[in-house]
Amino acid sequence: MKRPYLFTSESVSEGHPDKVCDRISDTVVDAYLSADPLSRVACETLATTNKVVLAGEVRGPSIDKDNLIDQVRECIKDIGYEQKGFHWKNCEIENHLHEQSSDIAMGVDSGSNKDEGAGDQGIMFGFACKDTESLMPAPIYYAHQILLKMAQARKNKSNEEFEPDSKSQITMLYENGKPKKVASVVVSTQHKEGLSPGHIKDLVRPIVYDCIPENLINELKDKDFYVNPTGNFVIGGPDGDSGLTGRKIIVDTYGGAAPHGGGAFSGKDPSKVDRSAAYAARYLAKNIVAANLAEECVIQLSYAIGISKPLSIYINTNGTSQVDETKIENLIPELFDLSPRGIREHLQLSNPIYVPTSAYGHFGRTPTMQGHFTWEKTDLVESFKNAF
Known about the structure:
Layout: E1 5-12, H1 17-35, E2 40-48, E3 51-59, H2 65-79, E4 82-83, E5 86-87, E6 92-99, H3 102-108, E7 122-129, H4 138-155, E8 162-175, E9 178-191, H5 197-211, H6 214-217, E10 225-227, H7 237-240, E11 243-244, H8 249-252, H9 273-290, E12 296-303, E13 312-316, H10 325-335, H11 340-346, H12 381-386
Parallel strand pairs: 3-6, 9-10
Antiparallel strand pairs: 1-8, 2-3, 2-11, 4-5, 7-12, 8-9, 12-13
């Protein structure tokens, strides 16, 4: 039996300044992978008042700079920014992308005597648990769902009072390690000028209650439901605060419910194990939990730049495993090639699939027929079951 405790996770919308930058960086990744699936991209983006700056390294086909800038404008337009301080049509866009370092290329590329190496050293974590049907921790999952529904309402014109920049936060009471009830909700959303906090709360409330199961939220008191606590949120997005790629790594993953290796995802092609190995670790952890080998599972992988095989594989089920954790660790390399090439091919990561990952979480999403979120599939469940 575990003691009762409160746990909190937050999400931010696609219009948050940092998420605008993640979206733009992944737009660049998809542009290069569309032209050549083996392109190398490491794109960082800065956004501030009516200005966007691209920087980083690329290797692959020559892409017309004006065309790339047009794609960035379309990205900003799709998010919904047509404001005086940040407008898709007239914001200044600088492109400082340049050729990838030959030293990095030498270590990563495959050759006659070596397989494709990892694009960097580092540690990556994957996690899954039985809080939700998606096998994600409940606070981050529901925080994402609220903002996703708000964005859908804004874009389909059913709620035109909302503007693109918003944040959510869920505090969940856990009893014996399981979600018991929502203890508090915080939603801050940019909105049209002249609207009262009470009016915004009335717009947000039905969305929140639609996203969270009734048994978890039916005891929530109004005093624990905060909407725009500062009272006004008209100036937002990159006009209100500058944004950078890769500053929302906890939002992107498990909301703090699991360790994080420290590397961001957006703006990186799949040769960068910061991204691809984190996807692989989630895929493995999810399949282990879906196979009922454990109630929850953390997986750590580690890599060295230029080396194809992981240096270590570590599993921790926090005492919930039905089988020996060491046996699961030893089984993983038999079921999944964890080299950069193996991950890329197994999860089909060389396709232009990354723009949808840039907001509302890289994990807990639904795989699509177009190849998005392949790491959320549970097609290894039978293999794990049959091994024990």
